[in-house]
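Dock manganese (II) ion; give full complex structure.
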Amino acid sequence: MSILLQLAESAANANAFDFIKKIEKAAYTLHAGRQRKRIAGGRVNGGLVEIYDLEDLVVVSDLHGDPKSLFRILSEIDYEQFLSNRMNKLVFLGDYIDRGSDSISTMYSVCHLKGTYPESVILMRGNHEAAAEFPFSPHDFPYEIEDRFGHRAKEIYKKLLSMFTQLTLATLVRHNLLLVHGGLPTEDVTPANFRRSIAFAHKNQVRSRVFEELLWNDPLQIDEIRGKESSRRGFGRYFGPSITRRWLQASGAKAIVRGHEPCLGFKLDHNNTIMTLFSCAEAYPNFRAAYLRLSAAIIDTINDAKDLSPYIRFLT
Ligand SMILES: [Mn+2]
């Protein structure tokens, strides 16, 4: 049996004990990386991971309980070989759960990957991994856990919520590519306080506006002077091109990649500086699923997010 099939089967058949073990290992690994302040080829600074040296980068966006899309990507990248090289990075943009039919298998597999390849896997936090901080509905995940694990459900969900607090809020790759789940915060940012702002957001979590906005914001074509608008989502805001320019300047990046919105695999906003990527097929039949694969050499030469579009790989 192939290693991927084995993973799919253990995810589908995991009992409470197996699942808890996977969650705890992932939580430990995330915590240890932050304590050491290091990941192969880069560093970990609170909620910010910076990668300086790498070979290949794969970016996977929202999965929303769709393990089939995840396994398809893992198969296409030959994940065991890919992840065994510490200089390759597989970054998840968050929103692993809810909406699809199998959030448990998705979460189990993602925890397994982080626990097994701690130097190659970066797990970011989506707004669905912050339901305790910013309650939204529908949030099906707790019910799915209850259906499957019965009286152990509360304990499992609590462990997950605690692990979620360890997830990464922003990833900067080779000073050129900035990855977030939702969007760019509307708070003032400069090259001098860019790192501190994200480290502070991680430390203060719900008390930090930057924390909320990294998870919840969406780009919108907004009047230059106003720059932002309140969001229909209940949390976060819409941010305009002036805020994107400010974050690009502060981080030194040429392009932003984020998830959070269904689209036809990807879309570009703000004069091609922001790419939205979407990797979930099951719960969104009217959209397309895709992921991104590129090398360090490509990352070094991009001038905007449009330059990433030849490296999009469609699943559907
Ligand atoms: Mn989201």
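Observed: The first strand starts at residue 38 and ends at 39.
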